[in-house]
């Protein structure tokens, strides 16, 4: 039974690539409004879990529910319309489109004036992008591209963002901006977050709960404040 307060519920799910199974009867619940961090060794299946929730990979068995609705067989597009947002590892912005055009790609919008209003609203959260609107996505720095990928996701006002390793190769000042922006979105728009990350400080800044993923299963949960304790870091550092 899936309770009404659960935003995402993954139950006993298996998936992988070809004949290789990566997730092994994995179960995970994300609560409405929660910021959840997922820690795990390289190659343990963190990105695979995010791709499964978003619909890029089919569930071989088990189920995925969103707000109590069974979405296991829904397409990526149908999941996005329900409120699932995804920022993939590597960002995948359109290099030959301008920043503004990239932002518009995040909207299901045919009314020009509404699109403009939505772009203006999102730029209030991403002031750094305001100065770059006419520039092509491909010439932005890595950090600016990460901000753009996040803004393109948030412009559609998703209920949850599935965020895959946003800190890779990004300067600390932009990481701080990403943290502040996500926390502001949480406060003002009731955003939820599922964050896959190896940067412990970033997980600590954003997550209310951290789970560990090993051998295709969720193996533990902890209060992220415990990551401030050096002995716990020592225990978990091997997971990063
Ligand atoms: N497209 C693919 N085809 C075949 N195997 C894949 C594919 N993508 C990932 N894998 C394999 O699936 C396993 C899980 O990969 P996944 O990317 O989910 O791990 P991860 O925990 O996100 O790791 P990392 O932190 O290195 O990104 C790995 O063994 C990986 O080699």
UniProtKB/TrEMBL annotation:
Enumerate the UniProt keywords alphabetically: Amino-acid transport, ATP-binding, Nucleotide-binding, Transport
Q: Which GO terms describe its biological process?
A: L-amino acid transport
Q: What is an example of a Pfam family matching this protein?
A: ABC_tran
Does Phosphoprotein count among this protein's keywords? Answer: no
> Its Gene Ontology molecular function terms?
ATP binding; ATP hydrolysis activity; branched-chain amino acid transmembrane transporter activity
CDD domains assigned: ABC_TM1139_LivF_branched (cd03224)
| Domain ABC transporter positions | 8-240
The record's similarity note reads: Belongs to the ABC transporter superfamily.
- Provide the protein name: Urea ABC transporter ATP-binding subunit UrtE
């Amino acid at each position: 039974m899936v309770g009404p307060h659960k935003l995402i519920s993954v139950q006993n799910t298996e998936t992988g690539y070809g004949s290789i199974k990566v997730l092994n009867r994995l179960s995970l619940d994300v609560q409405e409004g929660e910021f959840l961090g997922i820690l795990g060794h390289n190659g343990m299946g963190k990105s695979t879990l995010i791709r499964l929730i978003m619909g890029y990979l089919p569930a071989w068995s088990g189920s995925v529910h969103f707000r109590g609705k069974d979405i296991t067989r829904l397409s990526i597009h149908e999941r996005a319309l329900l409120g699932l947002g995804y920022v993939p590892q590597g960002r995948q912005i359109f290099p030959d489109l301008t920043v503004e055009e990239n932002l518009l790609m995040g909207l299901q919008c045919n009314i020009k004036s509404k699109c403009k209003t939505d772009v203006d609203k999102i730029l209030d959260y991403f002031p750094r992008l305001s100065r770059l609107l006419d520039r092509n996505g491909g010439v932005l720095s890595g950090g600016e591209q990460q901000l753009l990928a996040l803004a393109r996701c948030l412009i559609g006002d998703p209920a949850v963002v599935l965020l895959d390793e946003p800190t890779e190769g990004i300067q600390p000042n932009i990481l701080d901006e990403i943290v502040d922006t996500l926390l502001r979105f949480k406060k003002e728009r009731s955003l939820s977050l599922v964050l896959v990350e190896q940067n412990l400080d970033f997980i600590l800044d954003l997550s209310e709960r951290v789970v560990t993923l090993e051998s295709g299963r969720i193996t533990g949960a902890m209060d992220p404040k415990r990551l401030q304790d050096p002995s716990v870091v020592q225990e978990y550092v091997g997971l990063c």
